[in-house]
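Work Package 4 report. The design task specified in the project plan requires that, given a folded chain encoded as structure tokens, an amino acid be chosen for each position. We show below one input record used in the internal validation round.
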């Protein structure tokens, strides 16, 4: 509690300005879900034009934009709130924001996709995969990643980040260099130690022919994603308090060490790091410019439900689609997917999410402790993925 108060007291009036509204964060979430839908629609409804399909495949970066926005929003919420038992209340809010809709998605996708063997579950889906998914631990076991709920690897990473976030921000405060230092250490541990060891272990476990599956699962693992969140936290405090030459120096060290480690181990994570740093710079730039665009903001406010539901929408469209693959088919399929996913998101908001957030509000407002938060920040929390 006292650490949180020091964080709030330490912010500058000038630094708060970029985060004084939720509009740009919603735009970024909207752009992220636009990209995520693009890659999955293009996979099911290819244009057969290499340049177009390749460009849409780059939509995977939308998930990483979600990571940056999530980290920044959590830092914003933590530094702006003044309340008793902040960690407990943080967990309640995050759990009730993510879990109800995710749990609803589990039986839906089990019904749609079945439990038989697949690329993401070579031995099929059993109780272990379902239990790990329902408890948000699926990011730690290869054949539970993306096997029960499509795209659930990012939900695993988000939830584990939420688990460790209060401890990290309480320990580090606004000292953004510590977030970057931890990101460097974890990146090097993953590249030099964990990934080679885990690849050998799981390749032997699943047997010959599954090396690509194991390699991809380790790329999606939480340990490989956590540095992205930590860089997002550092960017938040840099935007709030102002950038310094030391920030650039640390990023340069990060890039150099990652390059050396990548060449020494063959982990192939250096390119991923560089893409994430570029994305982080773009996210920071959008926030500095206070970008706004209402249609994209509307998608951003409903991005979590759209993320979970668009896989089912694409599955349904694929069963009844009357057009042959091509550019026209792709464009129409994308428009229909976006529209239907948005409608599903609005429905789930009224049927599920609104009630879960009301419950979270009651649970975190109970007792004698007071919780204060600026109205604009509350708007950000409501739209948080």
């Amino acid at each position: 509690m006292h650490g949180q108060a020091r964080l709030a007291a330490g912010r500058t009036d000038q630094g708060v300005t970029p985060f004084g509204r939720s509009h740009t964060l919603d735009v970024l979430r909207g752009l992220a879900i636009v990209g995520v839908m693009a890659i999955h629609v293009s996979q099911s409804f290819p244009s057969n034009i290499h340049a177009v399909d390749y460009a849409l495949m780059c939509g995977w970066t939308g998930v990483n934009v979600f990571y940056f926005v999530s980290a920044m929003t959590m830092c914003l919420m933590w530094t702006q709130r003044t309340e008793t038992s902040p960690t407990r209340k943080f967990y309640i809010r995050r759990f009730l924001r993510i879990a109800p809709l995710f749990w609803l998605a589990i039986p839906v996708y089990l019904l749609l996709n079945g439990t038989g063997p697949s690329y993401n579950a070579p031995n099929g889906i059993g109780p272990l995969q379902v239990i790990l998914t329902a408890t948000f631990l699926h990011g730690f076991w290869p054949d539970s990643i993306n096997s029960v709920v499509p795209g659930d690897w990012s939900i695993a990473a988000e939830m584990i980040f939420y688990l460790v976030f209060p401890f990290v921000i309480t320990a580090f405060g606004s000292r953004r260099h510590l977030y970057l230092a931890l990101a460097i250490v974890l990146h090097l541990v993953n590249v030099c130690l964990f990934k080679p060891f885990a690849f050998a272990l799981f390749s032997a476990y699943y047997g010959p022919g599954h090396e690509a599956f194991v390699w991809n699962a380790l790329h999606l693992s939480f340990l490989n994603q956590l540095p992205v969140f930590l860089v997002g936290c550092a960017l938040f405090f840099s935007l709030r308090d102002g950038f310094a030459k030391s920030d650039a120096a640390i990023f340069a060290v990060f890039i150099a060490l990652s390059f050396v480690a990548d060449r020494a181990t063959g982990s192939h994570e250096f390119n991923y790091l560089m893409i994430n740093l570029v994305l982080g710079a773009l996210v920071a730039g959008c926030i500095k410019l206070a970008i706004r665009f209402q249609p994209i903001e509307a998608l951003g406010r409903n991005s979590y439900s759209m993320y979970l539901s668009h896989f089912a929408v694409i599955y349904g469209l694929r069963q009844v689609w009357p057009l042959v693959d091509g550019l026209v088919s792709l464009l129409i399929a994308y428009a229909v997917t976006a529209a239907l996913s948005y409608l599903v998101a609005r429905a789930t908001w009224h049927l599920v999410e609104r009630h879960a957030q009301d419950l979270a509000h009651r649970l975190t407002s109970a007792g004698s402790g007071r919780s204060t938060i600026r109205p604009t920040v509350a708007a950000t929390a409501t739209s948080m993925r």
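Residues 292 and 308 are 25 Å apart (CA to CA). Validation will be extended to a larger panel in the next phase.
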